[in-house]
Design goal:
Blueprint lengths: L2 E10 L2 E11 L4 E5 L6 H9 L6 E6 L2 E2 L10 E4 L11 H11 L4 H14 L15 H14 L4 E5 L7 H18 L2 E6 L2 H7 L2 E6 L2 E6 L1 H6 L4 H6 L4 E3 L2 E3 L4 E4 L8 E11 L2 E8 L4 E7 H7 L6 E6 L19 H4 L13
Parallel strand pairs: 3-8, 3-9, 6-7, 7-8
Antiparallel strand pairs: 1-2, 1-4, 4-5, 9-10, 11-12, 13-17, 14-15, 14-17, 15-16
Helix pairs in contact: 2-3, 2-4, 3-4
InterPro entries: AAA+_ATPase, ABC_SmlMolc_Importer, ABC_transporter-like_ATP-bd, ABC_transporter-like_CS, Mo/tungstate-bd_C_term_dom, P-loop_NTPase, Sulph_transpt1, Transp-assoc_OB_typ2
Keywords: ATP-binding, Nucleotide-binding, Sulfate transport, Translocase, Transport
GO molecular function, one term: ATP binding
């Protein structure tokens, strides 16, 4: 169900956690609240859940004013970063807890818990205690417990932040598949850009208590509203007075090639499937170019080689009307006002 947040403000003493925030979260979508630590994203999630009270503004869930409602009246499922499991109860009893509180029949509870344990692939662990599960399994248990009461909204506060990188990747894939099965409106907080880009249908970028931009992962990555969004949502490098993505740059080594900015290779670093080439331009500027391993091998460049840097013609940050105009768009021309509306690329 949709969530509408209108002009919400929240202060903790002199600290402004949220400053006149307005966001419309569509029904049935998976939305990420993304931003740096202390930016206000967890505070906004807790206000949606009713765990914090906004100083100003309004929260509507499913068209109902929930601003003054306590958490138990909002029909919201909440998953914390550290699971908040009942350590003395089995996995099955943890998942059943919310249903028992609501005094569902034993048959209904058994059926619902069996369905959820199968959904999160924990059916063989129902009789174990939480301490006997891995971190990823405990998080899946927490998600099953939140879904047990059939919430209209599922809220997750950095759900994978306490897990190692490999388990986080596995759970990201699993969460996306789970959401596609249950279709509950889901909002999750993260400061991990890759996590938001990979999992979310829509991303809300929050910084210093304000919404910087709202849009799809592609919109935000290719058409950032401002410098903060571009720098926060992926790697950047600077060429002249313009910010560009390192993978949107090309290198050439031909003696007769006079297109692009001249420079000299200072460092070549292999990082998995990609290679990062450091270049110092003739003007003394340090630029990073990202190539695939095969591109680097085909180029044959080494430290000390003279090269030229130019923006790839297919890059989203170019006007590309003619080859001569294939250059980075000026930062002041490329970025529109925050919010992501009517973003344009002006030559």
């Amino acid at each position: 169900m949709s969530i509408e947040i209108s002009n919400v403000g929240k202060r903790f003493g002199d600290f402004v956690a949220l400053d006149d925030v307005s966001v419309n979260i569509p029904s049935g979508r998976l939305t990420a609240l993304l931003g740096p630590s202390g930016g206000g994203k967890s505070t906004l999630l807790r206000i949606i859940a009713g765990l914090e009270r906004a100083d100003t503004g309004r929260v509507e869930i499913e068209g109902v004013d929930a601003t003054g409602l306590p958490p138990q009246k909002r029909n919201v499922g909440f998953v914390f970063q550290h699971y908040a499991a009942f350590k003395h109860l089995s996995v099955r009893r943890n998942v059943a807890f919310g249903l028992e509180i609501r005094k569902r029949s034993k048959d209904d509870i058994r059926r619902r818990v069996d369905e959820l344990l199968a959904l999160v692939h924990l059916e063989q662990f129902g009789d174990r205690l939480p301490a006997q599960l891995s971190g990823g399994q405990r998080q899946r248990m927490a998600l099953a417990r939140a879904l047990a009461v059939e919430p209209t909204v599922l809220l997750l506060d950095e759900p994978f932040g306490a897990l190692d990188a490999k388990v986080r990747k596995e759970l990201r894939d699993w969460l996306r598949r789970l959401h596609d099965e249950v279709h509950v409106t889901t909002v999750f907080v993260t400061h991990d850009q890759e996590e938001a880009l990979e999992v979310a249908d829509e991303i809300v970028v929050i910084n210093e208590g304000r919404v910087e931009q709202i849009g799809s992962p592609d919109d935000l990555y290719d058409r950032p509203a401002n410098e903060f969004v571009m720098r926060f949502l992926g790697p950047v490098t600077q060429l002249g007075d313009q910010l560009v993505r390192p993978h949107d740059l090309q290198l050439s080594t031909g003696a007769g090639d006079r297109a692009g900015v001249p420079g000299r290779v200072t460092r070549v670093t292999r990082v998995g499937f990609e290679s990062r080439v450091g270049v110092i331009t003739d003007d003394g500027q340090a630029v990073t170019v990202t190539l695939t391993r095969n591109e680097l091998l085909a180029l044959g460049t080494e430290v000390g080689d003279e090269v030229r840097i130019r923006l790839a013609p297919e890059s989203p940050t170019t006007t590309s009307t003619t080859p001569a105009q294939s250059a980075p768009v000026s930062l002041t021309k490329k970025f529109a006002s925050a919010g992501g509306a009517n973003l344009t690329q002006t030559s």
